[in-house]
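so ive been stuck on this for like two days lol. basically i have the seq below and the ligand is adenosine-5'-diphosphate, smiles is in there too. i just want the complex predicted, nothing fancy, no docking runs or whatever. if the output looks off dont worry ill sanity check it later, just need somthing to start from for the group meeting slides
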Amino acid sequence: MNTPNLNDVVDHGSIAVCCGSGGVGKTTTAAVIAIEGARRGRRCVVVTIDPAKRLANALGLDELANEPHRIDVTRWDPDDARVEGGELSAMMLDTKSTFDGLVTRYADSPAQAQRILANNFYRNISSALSGTQEYMAMEKLHELHEDGGFDLIVVDTPPSRHALDFLDAPARLLRLLNNPVFRVLMVPTRTYLKIAGAAVQAFIRTVSKVIGGEVVDDIVTFFRSFEGMEEGFRTRAARVVEILKQPETRFVLVTSPRRDAIEEARYFAEQIGDHDLSVDALVVNRVHPQFGTELSAGLRARVETLRELELGRETERQARDRLAARYQNLAEFNEIAERERAQIETVRVRTQSAAVAFVPYLPHDVHDFTALAVIGRILFAAPDIGAKPPPGDG
Ligand SMILES: Nc1ncnc2c1ncn2[C@@H]1O[C@H](COP(=O)(O)OP(=O)(O)O)[C@@H](O)[C@H]1O
Ligand SMILES: [Mg+2]
């Protein structure tokens, strides 16, 4: 049986979706995966979402528009060790420009695009509507995938309170566009009053009173302007779901071993399963190392034995106490590591065949290529736990 693992994601994936709760290391992992792909000769792009400022700087994202931008090879491959052909690009998802780009690209005419872009209601929802960020991440993925040019697209996902918002975002936008009230509003003016039922007319009058007639006009205009583009949104939404279900799309679940993160990761794993998708790799970031092979119980037993040891001389007693304290310390440290591993196991059983890779808690932040390379070596030098190393991998 072939166990999908991180090496496989990097070598054979065409899309890698990094998901997990906020702050666990999704953005970091996404960058590391893209760099590794580039080192192995693939043309990779990492689509980041709200990267920490210093990481954004390192990736050259500060001066950047909403399009992939090639990172100079000397930055990510200073030793010139990559396989021929490898490329690394990065972009930062800008929700508003992605939405604007869609409107411009898919409007029937430049005039229609202009009408929508200038609409106040549009200007508000294009950045503020909840779920828009998730939706635009999926639209961007669709665009990069259909335009070609990259062998591997690594997507960072927005930190959602609801685990898999990004998977449901296209459907939600469609629900908004299909809302019966909006459907009525989209009917051209002359016929609209005739056919709009009394209830809808009353609704519009009430809404106008509350939020102002001008705003309602904006909304009406917005939905009318969108006419004809809706079909495109529906088609792309369906296509994104298809793309996500392709076997070349890989899901990398990132978590930390902290209890709350683990709980969310378990939930993610279940949700991914409910969408008929599977977690291909589980990255557990910021784990505490386990020192030696002896478990905490054994270490504690040693502490007891030492403490019970009757010694004559004061210096011997002091040495015994110091040694007992060291073992005690080690026992406590390993207990944290053991507890973390037990927690992780509860996620692992829900991800079935996913390979698990551990990244230790580093003494520093990860915001430049040197630090990303450290994590890259950890993730890719060692074979994944629970996975056979791929044949011929040196
Ligand atoms: N293994 C690690 N050790 C130490 N710091 C880390 C590690 N992984 C990530 N970080 C730091 O933790 C913070 C959150 O990581 P990030 O990748 O931005 O998480 P997310 O995208 O999931 O919110 C960043 O400042 C990053 O540099
Ligand atoms: Mg992030």
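Confidence is low (pLDDT under 50) at residues 188-193, 384-394. The chain has two domains: 6-290+347-381, 296-346.
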